[in-house]
Write a structure and sequence with these properties.
Blueprint: E1 2-7, E2 12-19, E3 23-31, H1 33-36, H2 44-66, E4 75-81, H3 85-102, E5 106-110, H4 111-117, E6 130-135, E7 140-147, E8 150-156, H5 162-172, H6 180-186, H7 212-223, H8 228-254, E9 258-262, H9 269-281, E10 285-287, H10 291-294, H11 299-310
Parallel strand pairs: 1-4, 4-5, 6-9, 9-10
Antiparallel strand pairs: 1-2, 2-3, 6-7, 7-8
Helix pairs in contact: 2-3, 4-11, 5-6, 5-7, 7-8
This protein binds 5'-O-[(R)-(carboxyoxy)(hydroxy)phosphoryl]adenosine and zinc ion.
């Protein structure tokens, strides 16, 4: 089955085609960073307008790159939430219109389910069950994944997401927006033990996180005159230490031996290395998507759509709805036998 995926939940316009037999045929991403850079954050209306402009061009280039004719597409998946309402609507309208024109089924996909399952695009792919650490710009969640759609939230950030803490710290240091990757590059020139930040909430039981205090501590360290690279390095170290402590706790609690890292911050190399070492130590395995599949992309959306379309799910033919907010726990669990 060949499924075309469309992702427009925030500031990336992305189209991919996933073939259940042969894998990814094309994976195209256009980032709107230039559109939003001078505002210091994503402007929802500008995001939606740019998606409308780029979608037809991206579709044409994805089709050309795949070498497929339109009749060879068996279904269309799109991100139906969570995300920016207007941005989501542009992708939903495009995907539903395309599905109608091709006379193929369409399916709205949950963006975070895409992130959670993105490492299934890699070889080797993780098998169920596994512990997922989702670290993106909007979410920081530890999730027990028993199968497609069978997700139990074990813990989450009670305030800022990890990516948000990276972005706010980066902005403070004049590294632009979103600055997570730039901050991580600056770390290479800094000392990880230069500033002593307390690791948030690690003394308390449970699996929740909090990163707003650390953000304030970064503001204070910069104001106190520490070198930006030292603050960046110490910040990154504190975030990684905190994640490792909670992940270790969650592995003990669930008894799982597989860890999947997901979301934009999963592109962070020191984090990947630390978690690899952690899982090597305990005889388990860690899985993470290639960096370009960690940040927002349509490949993960096409993958989830393929799994669910194969199991018989589809949108109603008429109309469409998107959800700015959408808890993962509301998804249907697929029965194991319907997942190839
Ligand atoms: O998953 P994603 O692309 O978008 C959301 O759905 O939120 O995640 C984007 C987040 C941003 O906060 C960005 O700064 C962060 O991922 N990020 C990184 C790195 N690359 C992207 N954070 C730390 N280190 C990186 N290398
Ligand atoms: Zn995302």
């Amino acid at each position: 089955m060949r499924v075309l995926g469309v992702e427009t939940s925030c500031d990336e316009t992305a189209i991919a085609i996933y073939d259940t037999e042969s894998g990814l045929l094309t994976n195209r991403i256009h980032s709107q960073t230039d559109v939003h850079a001078r505002y210091g954050g994503v402007v929802p209306e500008l995001a939606a307008r740019d998606h409308v402009r780029k979608l037809p061009l991206m579709f044409a280039s994805a089709m050309a790159e795949s070498g497929l004719s339109r009749s060879m597409i068996d279904g269309v998946g799109y991100t139906a939430g969570p995300g920016l309402q207007g941005a989501l609507m542009t992708g939903a309208a495009f995907a539903k219109g395309l599905a109608r024109a091709l006379d193929r089924p369409a399916l709205g996909v949950h963006h975070l389910e895409g992130h959670l399952l993105a490492s299934m695009l890699e070889d080797p792919a993780p098998t169920f069950p596994f512990l997922a650490m989702l670290v993106s710009g909007g979410h920081t969640q530890l999730i027990a994944v028993e199968g497609v759609g069978a997700y139990t939230l074990l813990g989450e950030s009670i305030d800022d997401a990890v990516g948000e803490a990276f972005d706010k710290s980066a902005k403070l240091m004049g590294l632009g927006y979103p600055g997570g990757a730039a901050l991580s590059r600056l770390v290479q020139q800094g000392r990880r033990d230069a500033v002593r930040f307390t690791r948030p909430m690690v003394d308390r039981p449970g699996l929740d996180f909090s990163f707003s205090g650390l953000k304030t501590a970064v503001v204070n360290a910069v104001a106190a005159g520490y070198a930006h690279a030292d603050v960046a390095a110490s910040f990154e170290q504190t975030v990684i230490d905190t994640l490792v402590i909670k992940i270790r706790r969650a592995l003990t609690q669930t008894g799982y031996g597989r860890l999947v890292l997901a979301g934009g911050v999963a592109a962070n190399q020191p984090l990947r290395a630390r978690l690899k070492a952690l899982m090597d130590d305990c005889g388990g395995a860690v899985f993470y998507p290639a960096p370009e599949l960690c940040t927002d992309n349509a490949a993960m959306i096409a993958l989830v759509a393929a799994l669910r379309l194969q199991a018989g799910e589809r949108d109603l033919v008429s109309g469409f709805s998107v959800r700015a907010r959408w808890p993962l726990s509301e998804l249907n669990a697929l029965h194991a036998e319907s997942v190839a």
